[in-house]
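Homework-ish question, so no full write-ups if that breaks the rules, but can someone show me the predicted structure for this set?
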Amino acid sequence: DIVMTQSPDSLAVSLGERATINCKSSQSVLYSSNNQNYLAWYQQKSGQPPKLLISWASTRESGVPDRFSGSGSATDFTLTISSLQAEDVAVYYCQQYYTLPLTFGGGTKVEIK
Amino acid sequence: EVQLVESGGGLVKPGGSLRLSCVASGFSFTNAWMSWVRQAPGKGLEWVGRLKSKTAGGTTDYAAPVKGRFTISRDDSKNTLYLEMNALKTEDTAVYYCANTDPPRGYQLLNWGQGTLVTVSS
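A: Not a homework solution, just the prediction itself:
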């Protein structure tokens, strides 16, 4: 199984400041035939189901604010919130869909400082 | 608007059985690959299993902890996904979500239901 490791477990950021979440996979999720990274990011607010934010490591889903961005390739990925807003308080998960079983990182809790 | 509505959760004793349902609307359920994902109280997300569309073969894949005990099925005429859970263990206690995948867009989990809570306890 591909193990997804997120860091940090939690972080507190001031409103308007940048939040950075890291995700590392135990093996590459870059599919060489199409040069795509099979990596997604989800946001889960308290009491709600997860919501898909980013696919293919860096493609924002429709309606996702552009303050959210994804980067990275192969085994190392980053989710950045460029200017944290109050509504961004949530737990964020990375997930690989390169192979089964689908696996998630342990989550990063983002709070307001 | 895509909607996924799970039901069927509840309290069950260890060794017991339960069947969850997920009714879908707002997208082509027939062509969707559907997954179940669970989340134990206060914990992270764990993929349970997936059922491909009939046109893709209709095959299933399961996570190791549930293989042989859980069965995923679908009724395309009712736009409904099922999760049959047998030989339940206390560690199966979780909120169970259904989610859809659209293979031409990849295998990420596009939309999620609100979830249904399964509690396994004596």
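Now go work out the reasoning yourself. Hint: The mean pLDDT of chain B is 97.
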